[in-house]
Amino acid sequence: MKSEKLADRALVHLVALTALTSAIAYFAHAVAGLGVLIIAAAPVGLMKVRLVLLEFLHLRGRASPLVPSVVAWAGLVLTMACLKLLALSVTAAG
């Protein structure tokens, strides 16, 4: 597949994931609050970061040993951010 077509597909996926994040934010925050919002939006955020990083590094669709390490790094950073937000929400509520 041509790289322009892959970039167009990546943009469509990114817009769809952003719309999904907005929907999750609207419904989860209205129903349960910040903790559920963070837990529900985190996997979508990881997919967005993975898509953008792999597209930026031109690794999408390739069998490179960097792909798992990039995804693991993004997951680690996202996990730390989510834990910080959850800790702040717990201490603010308490």
UniProtKB/TrEMBL annotation:
Topology relative to the membrane: Multi-pass membrane protein
Compartments, as annotated in UniProt: Cell membrane
GO cellular component, one term: plasma membrane
Main location: membrane
Keywords assigned: Cell membrane, Membrane, Plasmid, Transmembrane, Transmembrane helix
Transmembrane segments: 35-54, 66-87
Pfam families (alphabetical): COX4_pro
Annotated protein name in UniProt: Cytochrome C oxidase subunit IV family protein
